[in-house]
Amino acid sequence: MIIFYRSCDSIRWFISSYKKDGISYILDYGAGKLRNSIYLSELGFKVYACDITDQINKIRSLKKSEELYCTIDEKFLVNYRLAFDLIISNYVLNIIKKDYARKEYIRNTYLNLKRSGYLLVEVRKRTKNTPDRCVTAYYQQELDDMILSERFKKVDELSFSKSIVGVYRKDGPLFIAYKKI
Ligand SMILES: C[S@@+](CC[C@H](N)C(=O)[O-])C[C@H]1O[C@@H](n2cnc3c(N)ncnc32)[C@H](O)[C@@H]1O
């Protein structure tokens, strides 16, 4: 099989490490230009690509989107309970500026994973040269704190030169409501 799309290194690492765990349905949450979605579709996974309205409309106009199992406009995801085996989030949390919006995004991952489903999050890495007030890059501990504020447990991590990756599993029911502040 020829794979045309160069996915993130974190995705190839995760699939080679965890594919034995019965992963079939995957949500690419913030799919962008589909580099990870198409890669995973061509490996035989059932991939749902989700993005904000403007981007999902662009995605739907692409011929390659026919390879996807489904596309979802992000604004509707909050209404769904789709029980994915895996949700991937590559370079999305570091571009969501508002705290409540990041929380809402993480809550949506929780609500749409099956019990014990995996969440893979990759964000830009914070280094000692990153300005303190910069919210677009994270230390591993900052990423973990953000994700583990929901009912996830951490199972793995990985560090690249420009990004960090956390792998988490859904752990228990969710009874938390957020309000905008
Ligand atoms: C930097 S791109 C990364 C795209 C892709 N994950 C990748 O690694 O190539 C970030 C993507 O997240 C999307 N995005 C931003 N906020 C989002 C949200 N709240 N829900 C879903 N997608 C979002 C953007 O539209 C954009 O396509």
UniProtKB/TrEMBL annotation:
CDD domains: AdoMet_MTases. Pfam families: TehB (PF03848). InterPro entries: SAM-dependent_MTases_sf, TehB-like_dom. SUPFAM superfamilies: S-adenosyl-L-methionine-dependent methyltransferases. This is Tellurite resistance protein TehB. It comes from the Bacteria. Residues 26-135 form the Tellurite resistance methyltransferase TehB-like domain.
